[in-house]
Amino acid sequence: TSLSDSLIASNGIISNRLAGQLRYMDSRDDEQDRGITMKASSIALVYTPEEVPEATDGPAEAPLAAASPAASLRINLIDSPGHVDFCSEVSAAVRLSDGALLVVDVVEGVCVQTQAVLRQAWREGGAPVVFLN
């Protein structure tokens, strides 16, 4: 959810100062009170890469040609619960996605739910990426 806040802040929806504290995707009162995600939430974001320099056919030392604008991408972000009690929410989110970004807290380490989510992503044909936070 902290990563979701940061991505949402990069789109200007919330302040960078509040990212990680606001828990924007946790819209239910009980989620805010308990500090955990219990229901999957989604939001559409736009990612516009910085200008990408075009390759040149010249030697490696040659300066790069003028940069070309890169196309914006729409990212549909689904923030799903990480706790094992809410595995049905995770299953539904994985089925709706092309891929999965699995955030692992390095202090807590790999848990049973971490392995279950990874297996679910593989089973559903998604492309999982593991991110160590």
Largest beta-sheet details: 2 strands, antiparallel
Q: Rg from C-alpha positions?
A: 18 Å
Our count of helices gives 4
Helix and strand pattern? HHEEEEHEHE
Oligomer: single chain
Give the % helix: 25-40%
- Which strand order spans the largest sheet, edge to edge or round the barrel? 1-4
Mean pLDDT across the residues is: 78
Low-pLDDT segments: none
Terminal-residue CA separation: 12 Å
| Beta-strand percentage range | 15-25%
DSSP summary, beta strand count: 6
**C-alpha geometry:** globular
Structural class by helix and strand composition = alpha+beta
Supply database-style keywords:
alpha+beta; two-stranded antiparallel ribbon
Question: Can you offer a commentary on this structure?
Answer:
This protein is α+β, with helices and mostly antiparallel strands and 133 residues long. It has 4 helices and 6 strands, in the order H-H-E-E-E-E-H-E-H-E. The strands form 3 sheets. The chain has a two-stranded antiparallel ribbon with strand order 1-4. Strands 2-3 form a two-stranded antiparallel ribbon. The protein has a two-stranded parallel sheet with strand order 5-6. Strand 5 (99-104), helix 4 (112-123) and strand 6 form a beta-alpha-beta unit. The longest helix has 12 residues, at 112-123. The termini are close together.
Question: In a few lines, what is going on in this structure?
Answer:
This protein is α+β, with helices and mostly antiparallel strands and 133 residues long. It is built from 4 helices and 6 strands; from the N terminus they run ααββββαβαβ. The termini are close together.
